[in-house]
Amino acid sequence: MTTRRPMIAGNWKMHKTCPEAEDTARALVGQLTGKEEAEVMIAPPATALVPVSRIIGDTPVQLGAQNLFWENQGAYTGEVSAPMLVSAGCRYVIIGHSERRQYFGETDEGVNKKIKAAVAAGLVPVICIGESETERDGGKTFSVLDKQMEKGLEGLSEDQFSQAVMAYEPVWAIGTGRSATPEQAQEVHAHVRQFLEKRFGAQTAGAARILYGGSVKPANTAELMALPDIDGALVGGASLKPDTFAEIIHYKR
Ligand SMILES: O=C(CO)COP(=O)(O)O
After folding, report:
1. Is the CB of 239 under 6 A from ligand 1?
2. Which of 100, 106, 169, 220 to mutate to test the pocket of ligand 1 (most atoms within 8 A of CB)?
3. Is 13 annotated as a binding-site member?
4. Residue 218 has pLDDT above 60, yes or no
5. Mutate which of 174, 176, 239 to test ligand 1's pocket (most atoms within 8 Å of Cβ)?
6. What ipTM describes this predicted complex?
């Protein structure tokens, strides 16, 4: 049986100026012992990546970006490429977040190109999938997720996928205070892992980390993390305060 190191990731979304981000990162580092069971990642806004990377330097906190564009360089005003993120100190990049799909027209095809660009540059993609409330109510959860995975992961070899992290974020649970129940989350995570097994084989699927995201807070982390196919959390609102995020990281205490 594969052991998967849990991961607790903070998606700061469009929050924090550079000084605020530096203060938050410094305070978070101050709360960690270095012996955390979970790998810790924070994804500040693009402007704060470099200053935050200087603060988290050799600490156990890893740096992630919230998006990228799939070309390495060129006339793409406003965009940031995978090699640029690497040069800013990133190891991870969140791809296909539902807010990007909803507000910025991100498609499964774009997600696919972004994943390939991330992997080619040596970044680890955190690939987000999730159904809306209407889709869940209509009994379409699995078909929606399957389509997002089929198109998003199209053409990726087992080797290319091997480091990737999946994140299941039901849209109806994001920022609503209404997290998925442990049963709902486990059911979907097991389904995602089965999909990965069919696509990439048992070993890769067994090693893949699948994070849950959507109203994760200190009070519900332990019960979610106890489930067999939940390997971590992608935390939005509750990652903005270092004390609260540290409580989530230390969910076992
Ligand atoms: O979208 C999320 C993380 O990427 C979840 O956000 P909340 O934790 O604020 O619900």
Report:
1. no
2. 169
3. yes
4. yes
5. 174
6. 0.99
Query: Which two three-digit tokens encode residue 171?
Result: 């849209």
The string of pLDDT tens digits covering residues 160-182 is: 999 999 999 999 999 999 999 99
Q: Which fold has domain 7-249?
A: TIM Barrel (3.20.20)
Give the model confidence (pLDDT) of 176-200 as tens digits.
Answer: 999 999 999 999 999 999 999 999 9
What amino acid positions are annotated as catalytic residues?
Answer: 97, 169
Domain boundaries, the chain: 7-249
Assigned token pair, 239: 């990652």
Residue 175 annotated in ligand binding: yes
pTM: 0.98
Q: How far is CA 103 from CA 53, 100, 118, 183, 198, in A?
A: 28, 5, 22, 29, 32
Burial (CB count within 10 angstroms: exposed 0-12, middle 13-18, buried 19+), residue 131: buried
- E strand or H helix at 175: none
